[in-house]
Write a structure and sequence with these properties.
Chain lengths: 135, 144
């Protein structure tokens, strides 16, 4: 019987939205205040949904402690209290929350058992969020 | 197709324990949740039904009706109860949030299916604001 287990984590990070391929004026038009030169920050919420068969003995889809360890190691340790622009994943792409969401999805997909990761949702503020799922 | 979700909250006690295991194994797998004195949560149940809005009323289902179904099928049995000791589906099964989502689906699905053109789409249960489980029906994932 397939079910899903979800967990929400928070991380705080700074970023600046700026594309090297665009002119200064084009960057200002595209990103507005998010293009301010010294960056700004968010308290991001990362919601992870894992799907799979419910183990008959434990009643669990995934061990919460194991999931926490993977997210802590692969995502929180990497991004929490950092400047996202300086991470190697954002050397060639703008650290929009769309791109952060996809980066987190890829990091977790590779670290969790195959097929278990249903989606990653990243909430940048209370009023906007992004979701990435397989395919 | 429109999805409509109604939330309800309930408070209940539980503990995690598998009778087939030794106390040591239960404690190793379930940690503090294996404390036989139990503990409790304020749960939030989200019930999502899917369908087309009725051309006259504009409703997928009547929200008051859905509230009454949730109350009758789930809340009466679960709210302010000890899940292991008072709720029949957890006499054997461990009352994890996953199993709660499946059990809530089984309680709600017949009433939703019988009443209207809408179908039960998803049941999600938050154990805390940061932990939740979801069930999308026995056919999800391609197997019953």
């Amino acid at each position: 019987m397939k079910a899903y287990f979800g967990r929400r984590y928070t991380l705080s990070a700074s970023h600046r939205l700026h594309a090297e391929s665009l002119s200064a004026e084009q960057n200002r038009v595209a990103y507005g205040r998010c293009n301010n030169p010294h960056g700004h920050g968010h308290n991001y919420v990362v919601e992870v949904l894992a799907g799979g068969a419910v183990d008959a003995a434990t009643g669990m889809v995934i061990d919460l402690v194991a999931l926490d360890a993977v997210v802590r190691t692969k995502v929180l340790a990497r991004f929490d209290h950092t400047n996202l622009n300086l991470d190697s994943l954002f050397a060639d792409q703008v650290p929009t929350t769309e791109n952060l969401c996809r980066a987190v999805f890829d990091l977790l997909k590779d670290a969790l058992p195959a097929g278990e990761l249903e989606y990653v949702r990243v909430e940048e503020t209370e009023n906007n969020f992004f979701q990435c799922s397989a395919a | 197709m429109i999805e409509l979700t109604r939330r309800a909250t309930f408070s209940a006690a539980h503990y995690y324990w598998n009778d087939d295991w030794t106390p040591e194994k239960n404690e190793q797998v379930f940690g503090r949740c294996a404390n036989r004195n139990g503990h409790g949560h304020n749960y939030t149940l989200e019930v999502t039904v899917a369908g087309e809005p009725d051309p006259v009323t504009g409703f997928v289902v009547d929200l008051k009706w859905l509230k009454d179904v949730i109350e009758r099928e789930v809340m009466v049995a679960w709210d302010h109860r000890h899940l292991n000791l008072e709720v029949p589906e957890f006499a054997k099964a461990v009352p994890t949030t996953e199993n709660l989502a499946i059990a809530a689906w089984r309680r709600l699905e017949p009433a939703v299916t019988a009443a209207s053109g809408a179908r039960l789409s998803r049941v999600r249960i938050y154990e805390t604001p940061e932990i939740f489980a979801e069930f999308r029906g026995p056919m999800d994932g391609g197997q019953a």
